[in-house]
Amino acid sequence: MLSSWVSKCSGVFLVVALSSVAHAESTVTSKVAEPKVATTEDNTGPAKNYDTTIYERLTNESPSLYEQIGGRPVLEKIMKDSVALFKQDPRIAKFFEETETEVLVYHLTEQVCQLAGGGCEYLGRSMEESHKGMGVKDAHFVALVEDFQIAVRKAGLTFEQENKLVALLAPMRSAIVNQ
Asked: Domains (ranges, CATH) in the chain?
């Protein structure tokens, strides 16, 4: 399913390669440390977690992806531009009508900062809880990724950095779509 999603996204073929390589490495090498598991809002148990293998790989890079892209100022600009695009995109704008822009930018910045090895700690809701009952479909997720990619390109990152940032979204698909 992930490969069919990625093939719909122009210019992000590296996502499949990174995800496949990271998964293969995690099954061949020693066991990777268990990620922190979010709990459901009512604390009845752990929320489903998406595959964090790609995050562990990118977090262990030196310098980290976060540092490579220019740290918080660049990441925050990417998130501001992304959210602006999400809210203007007729394919997905309805999902952001009731969303406070500043709050969403903050949470997205924190989440991607953590995933990119920036030392931040995302304390927001799990992806499942955040998207529960919204009716997000694959086409919506693809639209969001395309808008994010436009914002990343606007920031002037290298192609490799762009692909790594986009690759951070791929494992979240199953936690966001059809919740």
From this structure: 2-176 (1.10.490.10)
